[in-house]
Amino acid sequence: MNARLDHRSPLVFDTRELGRSPGALKRLSRSIEAPGDLGIEMIGVRKGATVELDLRLESVMEGVLVTGTARAPLTGECVRCLEPLGRELEAEFQEMYSYPDADDRSRTADTGDDAEEEDTLFLEDDLFDLEPVLRDAVVLSLPLQPVCQEDCPGLCPECGVRLADDPDHHHQEAVDIRWAALQGLAETVQDGEKDNTPRASGDDPQEK
User: Fold this and answer.
1) Is residue 207 helix, strand or coil?
2) H helices within 5-164, ranges in order?
């Protein structure tokens, strides 16, 4: 059974002022510390970083429609050269929080699919938890392949040096060890053929 919502949590919001009156609006802003796991492997919002939230709460027949924007600093690594990078994230979201006693038919009217109810978020004692919605919005807004710059050349595959720091960096062409072995074998065969070449009679140093 899920734990009850704590109104003291920074990501829990109270909708009682709306009074279940369709059309009632409430706007609010809040600065919160980012929860953990707000990102993907290469980039994300560091836990404890400041997230600025601007929300619009609107009372409708089925519940409260929450529309908002989240702004937060991103930290991560370039996938090409592994250099640290930072930028600002702005993620928009919209979610319906249904009243627990809302008519089931109104919640599934758009799709006609009862499975939709499993994904429905509900108000609890006029409170709602924004964390799952915020997490989805942030993760979906992140670049899957973050780069420090669009034309980042990455790292040298041979020595790992960052190519952007040394545009003229290169290595002498290495000889494939397999070809080197064949080349040595070919030279040995050629030397043997020279040794076995018959000499003209005039070339024999023992002939007089």
Assistant:
1) coil
2) 104-108, 131-141
Residue 175 and residue 107 share a domain: no
Same domain, yes or no: 28 and 107? yes
**How far apart, in whole angstroms, are the C-alpha atoms of residue 40 and residue 142?**
8
Nearest CA among 91, 82, 5, 75 for reference residue 40: 75
* Beta-carbon contacts of residue 55 (< 8 Å; ≥ 6 apart): 13, 27, 28, 29, 30, 66, 67, 68, 130
% of the chain residues with pLDDT over 70: 73
Smallest Cα–Cα separation from 77: which of 151, 145, 164? 145
Q: How many residues does the chain have?
A: 208
The string of pLDDT tens digits covering residues 47-61 is 999 999 999 999 999
